[in-house]
Design a protein that fits this description.
- The protein is an all-alpha fold.
- It has one domain.
- It is about 40% helix and about 0% strand.
């Protein structure tokens, strides 16, 4: 298991422990130091050299269910959001949003 995925899972546990407090989890990043998008730059899911895509998000969703953050019958509906943005002039915000929705739907189906 890679370090960013472990960070996602730990964040899911923290979110579960913090309910009903709203929490933000920022784990969209490039994996290697020295990569042009390393750090807090919000590349899309599946970015070459990035650390998160469908499989990692499915693992994260399963962890959110396990800690009770995503569960039926909750008084307040939980939310999950992602910070992603275009990284080149060839990507539009609409493409990045559509890709994020696609990855979420694929990951949800796997979770």
């Amino acid at each position: 298991m890679n370090a960013p995925l472990i960070a996602l899972l730990l964040a899911a546990v923290a979110v579960g422990a913090a309910v009903p407090m709203q929490s933000a989890i920022n784990a969209q990043m490039a994996l290697a130091q020295g990569h042009p998008l390393y750090g807090d730059l919000h590349p899309r899911f599946g970015w070459p050299g990035g650390c998160n895509d469908v499989d990692e998000l499915a693992t994260f969703i399963r962890a959110l269910f396990k800690v009770g953050y995503l569960a039926d019958g909750k008084k307040e509906k939980p939310w999950v959001g992602f910070e992603v943005k275009p990284q080149t002039d060839r990507e539009t915000p609409e493409q990045v949003i559509a890709g994020t929705k696609r990855v979420w739907e694929e990951a949800w189906a796997l979770a």
